[in-house]
Design brief:
Length: 422
């Protein structure tokens, strides 16, 4: 009995998650929301559509498990005059990363790996890596030095391994990856995932492991590790361990033909700031890749989903790893994932967790998201955030690659928070 006060203190001082809430559209109006203020979002986005600054948007706002707003705006296909429906399918690209990060943490909970375990324990090709030293842009030759340490699973989750990205990485690493035929993960169909990931081990790292943050193919490598450790391909693993249990019925690497009509068309902005259809000639990516059958599952970019499905995924994390009676992760594991892991700010102000940008006190003082909000987005104009303090899940999904008026999402975010008056 003498231990009871200490145990009570420990219980009440630990960070706690809310009761496992399921997302409801039938709970009625939220008493915390001024719906007249919330309607500013409609006026704002409709104005963007009318001016031709954006083609289509889906937004969803969930507060304490209650759907506050869930709407489609504009067009999913301008040429066909098809209105954007709120259950349309989006290429979520890098929003895939958080899902795969949860998958690797499920294996962590089962004791099948540790966060600071070398990747080479599972993929021996990653032993004795080299790091880029000098690069000759005239012929893309380079020299290397030995890596000071092995890259770890934590490095992959936090983008500190020294890997980089085709298309959007540093000019040196883009050139090295292009010469080696290293894919970004998008639009790859029949390649062997393990072979492509092991080919990375033959290329230099862009910097020493742990030295700095570099957005990278690290989560594609995590997807490969899931396959190696679990004995299942990534599509099977995520379907069985996440999508099925959570009721995420519209999240796929391979979108079934029966749902093809719900896939939004992708647009890009031309030199005159007009939106034109995105084609494979733009960046070498077939925009119809969600509909093409594939066996190469990109853990960093390959999924297609809906705002609703992704809101379920984020609500599970806000709940501390549970949703609708299903336990995906423990609260402590979610706390690890949504805590800053770095000894430095990856973007100047924020920290990075195990798969997420983590809003810092500095960012919270400057903007509307609360400290501890976790977030990220995708290559084709999608973004999300989950705010534990406000108990908010928010997604703003567009169908555009590049946008002069990209700050639309920031203004919508401001209006969302301004609508909560209690």
């Amino acid at each position: 009995m003498r231990k009871l006060p200490f145990l009570l203190l420990l219980f009440f001082s630990c960070p706690r998650f809310a009761a496992a809430q399921t997302i409801s559209t039938t709970a009625g109006p939220d008493p915390s929301v001024d719906y007249a203020r919330l309607a500013r979002i409609d006026t704002f986005i409709d104005g963007y559509v009318r001016r031709g600054w954006i083609n289509g948007v889906v937004t969803i706002i969930v507060h304490n498990g209650r759907v506050v707003q869930y709407k489609g705006y504009g067009y999913s296909d301008v040429e066909q005059h098809r209105p954007m429906h709120r259950d349309d399918l989006f290429r979520i690209a890098s929003q895939t990363k958080a899902i795969v990060s949860v998958g690797i943490m499920q294996l962590f909970e089962e004791g099948k790996l540790s966060l600071d375990e070398p990747v080479s324990d599972f993929l021996p090709a990653f032993k004795d890596l080299r790091v880029l030293d000098k690069f000759n842009p005239s012929d893309t030759t380079y020299t290397t030095v030995p890596a000071k340490r092995a890259i770890t699973i934590r490095d992959l989750l936090t983008h500190t391994a020294g890997l980089d990205y085709p298309l959007i990485g540093t000019k040196e690493m883009r050139a090295i990856y292009a010469k080696a035929g290293t894919p970004s993960g998008l639009g790859v169909f029949d390649a062997d995932l393990r072979e492509r990931m092991e080919s990375l081990a033959r290329l230099p790292l862009g910097h020493q492991p742990g030295e700095k943050w570099t957005y990278s193919l690290g989560v594609d490598l995590l997807g490969c590790l899931i396959e190696v450790i679990s004995g299942k391909n990534l599509e099977e693993f995520l379907s069985q361990r996440l999508f099925g249990p959570l009721g995420m019925k519209d999240t796929y690497f391979n979108v079934p033909a029966s749902k093809a009509a719900r896939l939004v068309r992708i647009y890009r902005e031309d030199s005159l700031h007009r939106f034109v259809p995105y084609t494979s000639a733009d960046e070498g990516i077939d925009p119809d890749y969600p509909l093409r059958h594939k066996r190469y599952f990109s853990g960093g970019a390959g999924l297609t989903s809906t705002a609703w499905d992704y809101a379920i995924f984020l609500q599970m994390l806000l709940n501390g790893g549970s949703y609708n009676g299903v336990h995906i992760l423990s609260p402590r594991t979610v706390q690890l994932m949504t805590s800053g892991q770095l000894a430095f700010n990856f973007n100047g102000v924020d920290n990075f967790g195990l798969g997420f940008d983590i809003t810092s006190a500095v960012s919270a003082a400057r903007d509307v998201r609360n400290e501890g909000t976790f977030s990220w987005g995708g290559f084709y104009g999608t973004t999300y955030w989950a705010d534990p303090k406000a108990r908010l899940v928010c997604l703003v999904m567009t169908n555009q690659r590049g946008m002069s008026h990209y700050w639309m999402e920031k203004e919508v975010e401001q209006m969302i928070y301004a609508s909560f008056v209690r």
